[in-house]
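To make this tangible, we now present a fold written out as tokens:
***
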Amino acid sequence: MAGPAFELIAELAAFTSGPARASLDAGKAWIREVRRAAGADLIERVERYTIGIYAELITVALEVAPPRGIDALIAGVEELEPGAFRLRLLGADSPLNRTMVSDGAFERAVDGDAEGRAEVSAAMGVDRAARRAVDRVLRTEPDALKAELLAILHDWAGRVFPRLATDALAAIERDRLAKDRLLAEKPGQGVLTAATNGVTFTPSPWVTGIVIVPTVALRPFIVPTELRHTAVFVCSVADEALDVDPLAPPRRLVKTAAALGDELRLRMLRVLQGEELSASEIAERIGVERTSLHHHLGILRSAGLLTIRDEGERGWRYALREDAIAGLGLEVESFLRRC
């Protein structure tokens, strides 16, 4: 599923991805361009929230009619009752998120209950910045919160999105068409694995549908979310969608070579051979802090060297992607011998 609304949200999510922002494929030049286009006032307002809050706007874009333009996204937000919009930003429309807190915790939190707020903040805030953003959503009056997010969307759409949209939307359309062809040839799970560069998904009992949203801005990240019975994977457009220069080396090959040129990442691949491990287990095996692994896991996954099993409540587990390693020599030879 694609449309300008999704890419605008992806830009906001990418820009507010915290320490992970250093791993964006777009690099520092993209960040500088965004800052110049947005201006200090808009950046200050955007950074009051984080990637998790903006990712929940994807669920609003899902509900608007194709082609899911930015005006339709803004209209979709306007149509939501302020209290419902606040719950949406907190992720309360995700059954998975509901399993992470006690019954009625989201409702108690937005009603001002201190214990409910603390519980939701701890569950939905994966780090200090995320908890501050969740706390801001909880303490801001619903009408004011909705007006603030609408102003952010409107201003980003006017100042930033036009600078980035042409190339991004063209790549997304190429990727969408490729995924449509793939759906005609493979089952949905195979398409999900291809689209997410290695993710296999074990749906929770309540999941009845899966939506894949390709973006350019969030490369190489995967951001999962849910809207009631629908699981959503916001993921990167395939490298092939960006390979428009026939004389340039394939992006995937360049990324693979870079991924393998690091001692720690080679050690990670070695311990992942033949078994699935969580990030914590990988860190324990090689004797490093878990927080230092996420950047490297992202690089290895983006290069197509890992499989990832999404087990819902149990989190993600990683393994070596044997077929990628086996085919690496052939890819190098194919490029070098290309006439």
Summary: The chain has two domains: 4-169+177-236, 243-336. The mean pLDDT is 91. The first strand starts at residue 199 and ends at 201.
